[in-house]
Amino acid sequence: MKKAGKEEIKTFIKERLAELLNIDPQSIDENAFLVEDLGTTSIMIVDLLVAVEEEYGVDMQSRFDLVEPVSVNLVTDRILENMEA
């Protein structure tokens, strides 16, 4: 499992989201909800979670109820929780 700090993880998530959404990573608000505010689809979220699992070696899909609002900060917190578990 790769260890990383909170800012590094946020940057990784924002870069992956930016690729999926074809936008500038700097334009992504860390508190914005991925579906409601950024317009990601469920497939994009699954792609993001798979990228996180590959990069950090953590099981992310079991850490989310995909009907709950999800933000960059929430994903980051769940990664860190999983790394500590």
How does this model look, in words?
Pfam families: PP-binding (PF00550). Residues 7-83 form the Carrier domain. This is Carrier domain-containing protein. With 85 residues, this protein is mainly alpha-helical. 52% of the residues lie in helices and 0% in strands. It has helices at residues 6-21, 42-56, 72-84. α1 packs antiparallel against α2 (42-56) and α1 packs across α3. The longest helix is centred in the N-terminal third of the chain and has 16 residues, at 6-21. The radius of gyration is 12 Å and the shape is globular. The N and C termini lie close together (11 Å). The mean pLDDT is 89.
What best-fitting shape do the alpha-carbon axes yield?
globular
How many individual domains?
Answer: 1
Biggest β-sheet, characterized? Answer: none
Top-tier CATH class = Mainly Alpha
Considering DSSP H and I runs of 4 or more, what fraction of the residues is helical?
40-55%
Span between N and C termini?
11 Å
Count of alpha and pi helical runs: 3
- Percent of sequence in beta strands: under 5%
CATH architecture, please? Orthogonal Bundle
Number of strands: 0
Average pLDDT works out at: 89
Q: Indicate the CATH topology.
A: Non-ribosomal Peptide Synthetase Peptidyl Carrier Protein, Chain A
Organism: Lentihominibacter faecis
Domain Carrier: 7-83
Protein name: Carrier domain-containing protein
